[in-house]
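Hi all, long-time lurker, first post. I run a small reading group and we've been trying to get comfortable going from sequence to structure in the token notation. Rather than ask abstract questions, I figured I'd post a concrete chain and ask someone more experienced to write out its structure so we can walk through it together at our next meeting. Sequence below, copied exactly:
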Amino acid sequence: MKNLGPATLYSLKTAAAAFAALGISLAVGLPMPFWAMTTVYITSNPLSGATRSKSIYRVMGTTIGAAVAVAMVPALVDWPALLSLGLAAWVGFCLTVSLLDRSPRAYVMMLAGYTAAIIGFSSVDRPEAIFDTAAARVTEITLGIVCVTVSHSLFWPLSVGDRLGPRLHGWLSDAEQWMRDAIAGNPDEIADRRKLAVDALDCIALATHVPYDTSHWREATRVVQALLYRMLLLLPLLSGSVDRRAALGDDAVLEEALASTDRWLDNGAPPEVPDYLHMAPPERDWRGLLRESFLVRLTQSATVIAECRQLLARLDNPHASVPDALVAERIPLKLHTDPGSAILAGLAAMFALMLICTFWIWTGWVDGGGAAAMTAVFCCLFAALDNPVPAILNFGGSIIASVPVAGVVLFGILPHVETFEMLCVVLLPICLVAGIFMMHPRYGGTATAFMVGFGSGIAITENYNADLAHFINTNGGQVVAVAVAVGVTATFRKVSSESAIAVLVRRLHHDLAVLAGARTPPDPNRTLVRATDQLALITQRLTDDTEGSVAGLGEVRVALNLVTIQHLRVNAPRAPRVALTRLLRTAQDHFATSQPGDAPPPELLGQIDKALRLTLDGPMPTPEAAGELIGPGALIVANRAQGRAALVAMRRNLFPAAPAFAVEGPSPEVTA
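-- Answer (accepted) --
Happy to help. Here is the structure in token form:
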């Protein structure tokens, strides 16, 4: 069977699940078997783990939505406006909550919202049957989910690891090449690496399905999390190495370190990292401090790459051993969310529903409930996008495009079908073609929407009872739903990529003020994940080779430097503590009152230099300290050596064109 190709095999498995769900629904006498068939195509995913995770959350969301509809419709059915307001408010609330969670769990609240609308609006004419309608919806959806889960889990399953493993290997190879470029001082190559942040976040999104996978990856969830965290950690470390290397230029003192790095990478990045910190003499002038900072970042980068290689080897071979220290701590990878945009999306969905319900009530439209339900679906499915309008038009257009095909089948072919076997033969060509297109990255969403529209259009039940007027009226409601969803969304939500980038950059800038003003040292793990995620969101929206994401990496480095300095301040003697407190206060004022790209005040440079002088009598950093990156206080070793490296990095990030640091005397003047 595997010789058929992945797309054909996937299509066959999905069609088999759809026919199984449809056949069982018909056999047991469920009222609307097409719901089970449609659910198969909505839930299906080429990756078995993704199908299973989506299935679990869909059942939960459907059950919650059905319960809300059962509670709300009988109580408010005599007040149509109040019922419409209640369901619209519920949809808006659920959508807002779902957008505050970028994991598959968000599917629970999204489904709870529009399932209540689908069941509630379709039951206003028969409120006494609301429980039966809700029970049928839950039963048929659960049946479809069980069928598609069994099909994709038992028959030639495609593991998440089969897709994620090669991407992780490719990402790490690109990171190692970036490291080679960094030590070679090749800025042209380095600029091309900015999309590593996007690729890392894509891997994180894919890894959310690992706990539901059918392969040995399911038992290695903690290994995957540890690897993904180190991937994020590499971005600012390598970026910092690039910056220090560029500042040093040609430096004969570093030749041994650079040659050692090449040899180490050629040998496959083994766990034994070169002792870079003893490859240069300790010097306290500015060039010596830059060299020390470069070697610290090089040691840290090499340590993380070596650990990534060990973790990848464990994922490739479940019997391979991995040091307990690499997976000892569970590191949460909580991604950035935007409460403002989430609330706005919820309000837009609520307003769209109220608008179409007003039209429905005012005109007495018989099938207006279907249009209201589809409006809820359209507003919810694509709310996470900056501009959902094109996606709504594409999805809605695909559903509408399926109507003529559904009409031909419903009125021209189904009247002659007498057995379930004949029905499957009639539907098989359409299901197979759509299933093949669902595997295509560009046309997958279009094909899914087509099957949703086709399944709802033919609306197969136990007895053939097609009605042309009802068919036209119902599908005409979908056109109205698309128009209302697009119109309201375009009014409330249309945001250009440039505007979205500006918002993200301002938020990242604001986060720097929060970090600088924190009374207790912030969690470095959370800081890293949040800042890198924002950087990835910025990079995803860049349409050309601008320097926006390169500058964003500098912001990520500043965030981690601020966290390091905060931890150092808590444990420092009085004089350094006072100097660091003043530095952080000035940094907070700057980030809180300035716009991204504004030059920092010259007094901040003087305060950085004053604090830097107070660390000069500290020891050189050790390889063990420089490599201590994972665990409580990641990136933080609260001694003067690490503080010195963070201050040097801070000076380079905020004042890259400043004159050299003076070991004695006042700091140099900086021109804006």
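A couple of things your group might point at:
Residues 543-549, 625-638, 667-672 have pLDDT under 50 and may be disordered.
Residues 286-316 form the longest helix (31 residues).
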